[in-house]
User: Which sequence fits this backbone?
């Protein structure tokens, strides 16, 4: 084929990308003045604690003696070699990307469904927002005791009555694998409405003519998805994915309230481990080094995603 | 939105009728599936808040249905024996304060990012993400010192001071997205008409972005309402607690969980926000669209 | 590639800005001396710290004790309820497992406040949240006046930030006899009482008599008897024992009790040398595995502090090792009789402490009251604690026998509540310095031992082994790897 379907789709997409325009550049300091309140607020309230936490991690600070003495990178070295840390690191990645993928799939499907017009659409949308808007501490509690409790579990009850579960029922929070699934489930349940909204935003930003033209060009569903839709909503997807990754990676509440890292460290993540060692155990230095370990990981992830986004743009 | 839906429907209707029917059925099935997943736990919470105490501890009852007559006791307990209304008021105060600070700080910055060309504009975007990367698990200790230095320890105002640290980044991005959706020609026209830049902003840009501003406000409101770690660390007096903290700490006494009231509190706190969200969802979507376009 | 260059440059700029910001905010907020502008206590002494002044008792009602003066422990004056008290008094304690106690305590505190013209506030948070809360207060050098440690007492850790309460303890000794070894272990640090041990919580074996009858009512004296009896009940009628093996306090103190009856411990008497690579510890692990596999409910890996109470209350559990709050939560209230609940309640009995090859040992959770050095109203704090000690017996009654004494003579029979109820009478014999210990036994409950427990290392080690797919040597190695770094830190 001389000019294939795919090439034609690429051209269409390139032409359709909105141009960025700004007001002509001024020499004054106005922009900086406008941005400075935000910047200063963040630096003052986030910068100082952050550098303090950084100092904790290179000292031997503890909760009662937070002005410790400098020990260099010893904490980081100890932490890296520790089996509990490695386990938590792996879990953090698995949870973040595992739930991210499921949320992405569910969110995308839901977004397509929400594009259609159906009766009571607004009301149903409201219901679909409930997992996201209910306070996280309380919804996790209800999962712990309503869905996964050994004796009162709704999941087990439904499963038993549908005939797909038999005693002994899955030990939801007591078996390592099931506990992992339970944490993933709660994460996904909370987050998929938000993912759906992000994807929805993207989908509604695609001019319908592009889709029509793509059909005219002879593209099938998969080609349309891959060559037209994804490139056009890539910026939005990227932002949504980045926020999701960052929020899930650094989240303490779900694991802490659901399993507290159990059973026996099976669901420990970096934040829960850092909290237990640093605050409950009192070893601020070690806890900070675990918590701050997330920083370079996340920076690398964000930069990589940004790069791949930039490369997509023409 | 309607145009897109219509376009998609039109393009779907062109082939044979049965394909459209199949698509419709699939879509409704999917919708039902999502609704059940999303709502079922909430339904359980709802039933729990109305079930009689004995039903709650009886493993023989159907978990999401009831045997004994439903009761309003848990709601009554919530309002009479705890400071629930105070907590709701606190949450409202805190979230409103946070929203005001966030908007005050973000409006100028978002405008600058959206419209003005200056160095580092692109890269403040990265900075925004990175500020979420610093985890509250350790941050709350040094923050405790800052909060105490301002005499705000154990007070809801301490939370008002601290919460903007996680609302500002996302709201900044969102708000700059909204400003970008305001066509630049309108502003240029205002400048040509003789307004200076500030008048242009006040008279032209802001009114057009009211929806976006409100959306950002709702989002910041929700983020503050959800927060738990800082609240649990900085506030211990019952009258100062926000609703999430209050419900969890005061309705779990040792090994006694006041399940009915816990769930009642959760629902009363969460459902109004869901309704609010629903109103602004369309604008929210718009803002994300605008925000992501570079 | 241009984007890379700009990103790197941007990073450098941000770092530079960050350092600038740090300098800026460090200059603004001086952590050493808290900003004097907003201390709620209005008169702040700008002169020399009040440490040595004997006028503190009769002086300005609210003297803000500056943390910079904290280095020299304020000498304690006679804490007789002074009529010159005033100002505010804030107390932070846990949510008592017997809710009625909190109701009584809060009222008593308010009445005390009215009588002494002090505005008393009692804040309650759940026990688990106490630790981060104390960390935050210690970091902020600001918070409540009186704090209550529950279980994971951190008097060793915060030693230098807690007021000397020796005279309060002296008053307690005069009234109630010598403090128990448990009390001394928690409160007496380097010769100074940094806390007033207020009560301890007993954890006792709770058995379903009716279920035991079905297997011939065997005598239950040792942990091995439990293994056999509950093993039979598990296979015969699905009524296993329930002992948590998870990240919760119950798990930590239950298994320590078992461990000590085997003569094993995670640390030696000096509080510094690890003790896990011993025959006793191995024997203990083997027993734990046998106990779990034969007699315990597999869901215990997911349990929290409440789960065993609920397990007993559901009727399925034949044995739990827990405080009497579990009984109290089954007992139907007098105004709402419930035949089924009453039947269950009546069928449960409290048994004497279980023993093992190395005798009888039980772990108690101790609650102590301490006063921060930076407390804003130390006089009122001490007066309050003095009067609380004075009515200790009343407190025990209000707790329905849950609060156990920390002074010898308070064990005299009949004890409040326990002496009158045949079901609980046996608890009066739950005493003896050689039987009741707390974390860190046989060493002191120091910061290292507290850190070990707070991180749930013992539960983890047991959990890893009882699961069955690790060799015992590997588990011992795991235990050593976990504990050694912690103890090395403190021994350095």
Assistant:
């Amino acid at each position: 084929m001389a000019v294939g379907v795919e090439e034609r789709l690429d051209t269409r997409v390139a032409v359709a990308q909105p141009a960025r325009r700004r007001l002509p550049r001024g020499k004054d300091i106005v922009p900086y003045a406008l941005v400075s309140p935000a910047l200063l607020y963040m630096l003052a309230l986030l910068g100082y604690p952050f550098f303090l936490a950084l100092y904790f991690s290179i000292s031997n600070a503890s909760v009662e003696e937070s002005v410790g003495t400098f020990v260099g990178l010893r904490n980081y070295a100890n932490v890296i070699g520790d089996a509990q840390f490695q386990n938590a690191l792996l879990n953090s990645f698995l949870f973040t990307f595992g739930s991210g993928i499921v949320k992405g799939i569910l969110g995308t499907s839901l977004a397509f469904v929400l594009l259609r017009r159906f009766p009571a659409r607004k009301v149903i949308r409201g219901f679909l927002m409930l997992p996201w808007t209910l306070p996280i501490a309380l919804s996790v509690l209800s999962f712990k005791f309503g869905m996964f409790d050994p004796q009162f579990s709704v999941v087990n009850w439904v499963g038993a009555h549908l005939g797909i579960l038999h005693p002994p029922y899955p030990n939801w929070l007591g078996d390592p694998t099931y506990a992992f699934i339970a944490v993933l489930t709660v994460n996904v349940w909370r987050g998929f409405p938000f993912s759906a909204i992000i994807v929805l935003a993207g989908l509604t930003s695609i001019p319908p003519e592009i889709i029509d033209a793509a059909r005219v060009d002879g593209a099938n569903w998969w080609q349309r998805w891959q060559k037209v839709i994804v490139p056009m909503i890539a910026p939005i997807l990227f932002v949504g994915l980045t926020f999701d990754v960052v929020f899930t990676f650094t989240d303490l509440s779900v694991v802490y309230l659901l399993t507290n890292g159990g059973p026996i460290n099976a669901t420990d993540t970096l934040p829960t481990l850092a909290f237990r060692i640093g605050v409950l155990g009192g070893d601020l230095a070690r806890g900070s080094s675990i918590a701050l370990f997330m920083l370079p990981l996340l920076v690398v992830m964000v930069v990589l995603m940004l790069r791949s986004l930039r490369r997509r743009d023409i | 939105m309607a145009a897109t839906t219509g376009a998609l429907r039109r393009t779907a209707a062109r082939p044979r009728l049965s394909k459209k029917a199949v698509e419709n059925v699939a879509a409704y099935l999917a919708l039902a599936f999502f609704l059940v997943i999303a709502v079922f736990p909430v339904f359980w919470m709802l039933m729990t808040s109305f079930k009689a105490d004995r039903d709650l501890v009886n493993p023989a009852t159907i978990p999401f249905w009831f045997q004994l007559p439903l009761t309003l006791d848990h709601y009554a307990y919530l309002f009479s024996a705890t400071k629930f209304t105070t907590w709701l008021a606190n949450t409202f105060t805190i979230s409103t304060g946070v929203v005001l600070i966030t908007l005050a700080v973000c409006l100028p910055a978002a405008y600058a990012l959206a419209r003005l060309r200056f160095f580092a504009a692109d890269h403040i975007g990265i900075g925004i993400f990175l500020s979420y990367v610093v985890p509250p698990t350790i941050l709350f200790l040094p923050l405790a010192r800052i909060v105490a230095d301002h005499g705000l320890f154990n007070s809801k105002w301490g939370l008002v001071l601290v919460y903007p640290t996680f609302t500002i980044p996302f709201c900044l991005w969102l708000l700059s997205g909204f400003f970008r959706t305001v066509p630049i020609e309108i502003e240029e026209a205002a400048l040509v008409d003789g307004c200076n830049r500030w008048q242009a902003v006040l008279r032209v840009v802001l009114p057009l972005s009211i929806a976006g501003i409100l959306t950002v406000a709702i989002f910041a409101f929700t983020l503050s309402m959800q927060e738990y770690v800082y609240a649990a660390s900085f506030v211990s007096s019952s009258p100062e607690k926000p609703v999430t903290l209050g419900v969890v700490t005061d309705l779990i006494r040792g090994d006694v969980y006041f399940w009915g009231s816990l769930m009642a509190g959760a629902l009363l706190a969460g459902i109004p926000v869901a309704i609010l969200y629903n109103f602004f969802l369309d604008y929210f979507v718009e803002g994300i669209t605008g925000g992501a376009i570079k | 590639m241009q984007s890379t260059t700009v990103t790197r440059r941007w990073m450098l700029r941000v770092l530079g800005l960050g350092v600038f910001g740090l300098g800026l905010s460090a200059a603004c907020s001086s952590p050493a001396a808290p900003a004097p502008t907003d201390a709620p206590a209005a008169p702040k002494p700008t002169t020399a710290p009040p440490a040595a002044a004997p006028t503190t008792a009769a002086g300005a009602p609210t003297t803000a004790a500056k943390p910079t003066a904290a280095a020299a422990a304020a000498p304690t004056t006679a804490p007789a309820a002074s009529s010159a008290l005033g100002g505010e008094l804030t107390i932070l304690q846990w949510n008592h497992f017997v809710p009625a106690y909190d109701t009584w305590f809060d009222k008593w505190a308010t009445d005390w406040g009215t009588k002494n013209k002090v505005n008393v506030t009692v804040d309650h948070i759940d026990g688990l949240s106490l630790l981060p809360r104390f960390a935050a207060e210690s970091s902020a050098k600001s918070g409540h006046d009186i704090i209550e440690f529950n279980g994971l007492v951190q008097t060793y850790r915060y030693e230098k930030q807690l007021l000397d309460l020796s005279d309060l303890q002296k008053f307690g000794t005069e009234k109630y006899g010598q403090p128990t070894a448990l009390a001394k272990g928690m409160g007496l640090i380097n010769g100074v009482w940094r806390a007033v041990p207020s009560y301890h919580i007993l954890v006792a074996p709770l058995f379903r008599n009716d279920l035991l009858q079905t297997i011939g009512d065997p005598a239950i004296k040792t942990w091995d008897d439990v293994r056999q009896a509950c093993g039979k009940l598990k296979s015969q009628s699905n009524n296993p024992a329930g002992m948590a093996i998870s990240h919760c306090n119950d798990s930590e103190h239950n298994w320590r009790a078992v461990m000590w009856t085997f003569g094993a411990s995670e640390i030696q008497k000096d509080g510094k040398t690890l003790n896990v690579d011993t025959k006793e510890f191995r024997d203990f692990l083997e027993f734990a595995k046998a106990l779990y596999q034969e007699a315990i409910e597999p869901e215990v890996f997911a349990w929290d502090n409440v789960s065993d109470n609920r397990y007993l209350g559901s009727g399925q559990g034949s044995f739990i090792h827990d405080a009497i709050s579990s009984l109290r939560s089954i007992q139907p209230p007098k105004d709402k009789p419930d035949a089924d609940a009453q039947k269950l309640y009546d069928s449960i009995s409290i048994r004497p402490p279980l023993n093992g090859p190395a005798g009888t040992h039980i772990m108690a959770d101790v609650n102590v009251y301490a006063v921060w050095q930076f407390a804003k109203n130390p006089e009122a704090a001490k007066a309050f604690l003095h009067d609380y000690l004075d009515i200790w017996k009343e407190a025990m009654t209000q707790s329905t026998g849950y609060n156990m004494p920390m002074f010898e003579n308070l064990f005299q029979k009949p004890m409040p509540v326990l002496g009158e109820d045949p079901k609980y009478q046996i608890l009066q014999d739950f005493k003896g310095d050689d039987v009741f210990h707390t974390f860190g036994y046989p060493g002191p409950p120091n910061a290292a031992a507290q850190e070990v427990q707070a991180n749930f290392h013992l539960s983890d080690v047991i959990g890893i082994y009882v699961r069955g797919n690790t060799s015992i040597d590997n588990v011992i190695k795991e235990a050593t790897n976990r504990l050694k770094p912690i103890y090395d830190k403190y021994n350095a």
The interface with chain C takes residues 54, 57, 59, 120, 122-123, 126-127, 140-142, 144-154, 232-234, 236-238, 249-250, 252-257 of chain B (CB under 8 Å). Chain B has a mean pLDDT of 78.
